[in-house]
## 1
Amino acid sequence: MVRDITIGQYFPGNSVLHNADPRLKLVLSFVSIVFVFVCNNFYSLALVLAFTVVAVLSSRISLKVILKGLRPMLLLLIFTSALQLFYNKQGTELFVSRFITITTGGIFTTIFMVVRIICLVLLSSLLTYTTSPTQLTDGIERLLSPLKVFGLKNGVHTLAMMMTIALRFIPTLIDEIDKITNAQKARGANFETGGIVQRAKALLPIFIPLLVNSFRHAFELSLAMSARCYNGGEGRTRMKQLKLAARDYVLMAAEFIFVGGVIALNIIFESVI
Amino acid sequence: MSLLELKNVSYTYGAGTPFEITAIKNINLTIEKGSFVGIIGHTGSGKSTLVQHFNALLKPTEGQVLLNGEDINRSKHSAHEARFKVGLCFQYPEYQLFETTVYKDIAFGPTNMGLSEEEIKARVLEAAEFVGLTDELLNKSPFELSGGEKRRAAIAGIIAMRPEVLVLDEPTAGLDPSGRKKILSMICEYREKTDSTVIIVSHSMEDVAAIADKIIVMNKGQVYKYADVHEIFAHSGELASLGLEVPPVTNIFLKLKEMGLNIRTDIYTKDQAEKELLRYLQKEGIAW
Ligand SMILES: Nc1ncnc2c1ncn2[C@@H]1O[C@H](COP(=O)(O)OP(=O)(O)OP(=O)(O)O)[C@@H](O)[C@H]1O
Ligand SMILES: [Mg+2]
């Protein structure tokens, strides 16, 4: 059951997006997400949607996985659309009855919101789908490295290291939860019946060993790190140097076209929202 | 009479995702009542996956698991019942201890069975005696015990359910030689006293060969061989070629054979080794 969570997961592959520089991917995802919210008419919205679709396709991740990642959003989407649709009073009225009025403003906002949320989720999950946790933290550390000037010498490195370790241990912990759950089930533990209190209590036999094991992992890891003379970021060099390659410039160009397109369309056509 | 029967069982982890792994394929086997079966195989050969089918923790992707002739996966209830009839003790079971005292932890299984207070107490004390935990230890926190003691406490937690079949996944992994010996002799004693069926998983053949009647050799998710111990060792050369660590004694005889001596290689205990060596020396006319 815990294995169904796909957000934040990494799917190894060999696409344009997989091979791109993680720093660039971080920046481009951020910029794209900003422009998802900048667009203000149907032409620029269509461009945003098209851009997202192209990005998804170029990751070569199976559509099944992508759709599975969107599924948790479904409820949120339905709920917020209903609210917008029935309670937004802007624009001309299209349908009026005693309880609800539907206006053009309501319909437009609903469409914008649905498309924007979907694009937001897709673009941000694409980042983690195509970037391994180590690459991701490496990218973040490099992007934040200018902060070192402000006396945060070791801070940036420590932060990145902590993130790497945390991400690294997610699968381990998921595995462990699975194992402990099975071990307690083998002793007849029942997690599926009973009221809320009973179910919460039933989780204790999983929770306590998990906590104990996490501490054990932490101690073992710190021991292993100091045994290999780890002493923070100072003077550390890297095995993999990040360098922008030709394909990264192609991605950058694509992003510029997208950004330029959204701005131009926003200027040419009238805003509807 | 057959107690546990697997028919064409296959299991695939992560079916329908990019990470599909078929861990076991097409397994057919029968475990007789009262037998003592060892399961050996290379790391990753599917031993742990296989034994989790015995108590319905894993539901076969294909095939059936029968306990006393009935499919254990026919309903949720039957699967739950199977957990008490087939007691499965996991690899590194000490990591699943959670209660405030060892006593309470051992009582977890029997409590889940819905037994009366006295019955639970009787079972816990009996199980603790089997594994050699003193009363003093029973009142300690499980986290204060030594590694070997934790392991025994965890095994006691399974024994206390009085299962018809006791399945132990790598009960000696990570223990020192004396700890290993203690656990193995404890298992033998348990079997003698209760006449129950015992299945023990290990990748050390030495441990298993000394105590089991029959051996299942797993290779790449399939049953490579299932036979009596002496029959398995009649082909000890094959086992070595599968990358299994044969007992050191067997290894000596395999090497002697390799050197050109006309000697048997189905040797797995010291007694057998002594006899065979004497026989050989006499036959070759080397004075003794
Ligand atoms: N929870 C899981 N999810 C995905 N794959 C798994 C899982 N558990 C085991 N596997 C895979 O199934 C195969 C068999 O694993 P299994 O644990 O049954 O082997 P094993 O014989 O018990 O090995 P070991 O001697 O190391 O304990 C391995 O290839 C393993 O990677
Ligand atoms: Mg195993």
## 2
Amino acid sequence: MELLDANLELKEIQKLQGHTDRVWSLAWNPATAAADVPSVFASCSGDKTVRIWEESPSTRSWDCKAVLEETHTRTVRSCAWSPSGKLLATASFDATTAIWENVGGDFECVSTLEGHENEVKSVSWNASGSLLATCGRDKTVWIWEVMPGNEFDCIQVLQGHTQDVKMVQWHPTMDMLFSCSYDNTVKVWWSEDADGDWSCVQTLGESNNGHSSTVWSLAFNAKGDKLVTCSDDLSLKIWEADIIRMQSGDGYAPWNHMCTLSGYHDRTVFSVHWSRDGIIASGAADDAVRLFVESKDGSMNGPTYQLLLKKKAHDMDVNSVQWFPGEKRLLASASDDGTIKIWELASLA
Amino acid sequence: MTLGLINANPVVHAKKERVARSEDPHGDDAVDPLEIYDILPLFSILNFVRDIRDPEHPYSLEQLSVLSEESITVDEKLGRILITFTPTIQHCSMATVIGLCLRVKLKECFPPHFKLDIKVAPGSHADEDSVNKQLNDKERVAAALENPNLRQLVDECLYSNEL
């Protein structure tokens, strides 16, 4: 179905309340993407807690299954499930990253990663679950190795950003790490050899068509050959790289700017996420969620992207948007208004 | 926190007479810009230099011309507020603290869906862009307000008694 031709809308399926402060971030458990498994996601908040939500097979709605509290002493800013879905990492303004394990329905904090000098803002697992990355206001990005028995060893502290690092994200198929910052750049970190040192192999800055203000978030398409970034400069930027060349062991292939989507947002864009079937969702400070798709009638310069729809999603800023990793076209959004909403992208009735 | 006043000799202006408005053209939920103004009558920048025994210059932001009626714009339809303030000296390191205090106080006065942008008046501060960027990064603001020392400073500025 050609997305731009179909009459699509974002239908609100459910509004989840429970957090007592703004909800900063949420993450779907990847192990619950299959159709016959109740889907699960985690949310984290300024109320210092993390909530686990699970879909009830009978009612088809999400209920709060657990509240992870009394561990973080400040805002929990971001959360990420390991690829196996067995562990949940939570990053907090209290300068720690907690690792939680689901032990027979109860979530236990099995490890606490310390080291950052101040607020930890983001955490991300690599595709195989062997590495973890964190970043924070201390301008550093930390890479941790996942050892047996829930042990985590810091293998390197990456310096390079000149300001607060807002988010880190591993590439979906390769061990390549991306970080975005208050210094307006996106940095790519890579290690030539398995045991070698990690270094910054590329910086996407203003001089190569990069953003002109804080870059808040980034996301990859399913194939991993395209990247979308969003910023306080009110734009989204699409980047691409020759991933095939990289995957064949031909060395690092740089990311190149493909296009900039400007004029669609009038306030800071906090979050961006790419669905399996190529729809980019953005969450912004104007309380709205926007969806963009590739436009088939691109010029000689390559494909461009078009706005599919804009939806006023919440009463306050949208901080996070995340597509469900399974077949269903579901989108979750988290807001300063303390609520989470589940949306379905469906044809207008 | 340095001892000694940052600006020992501020220029003090007479308080303007508040003109009472007889009609309210905006309706029930309207917020009169002057109301914000009234809530900050005794906001004293220099109160938080605690080591000084006698608080000098117990003047308000109004009297120091840091804020005036002209510096507040409210768009009720869009739900947006823009405040510009003028730090008394070009290198005022208190600019970010003043900005934080403004945010906390104004959050109490406006409905939650209002968006607030705070800036230093153009040309009034040496690091204008840097200060404005910090003041409008809500993640930085949230983290700053979770810092107990900073929070205490802000609370003292906002809730200190009339002198």
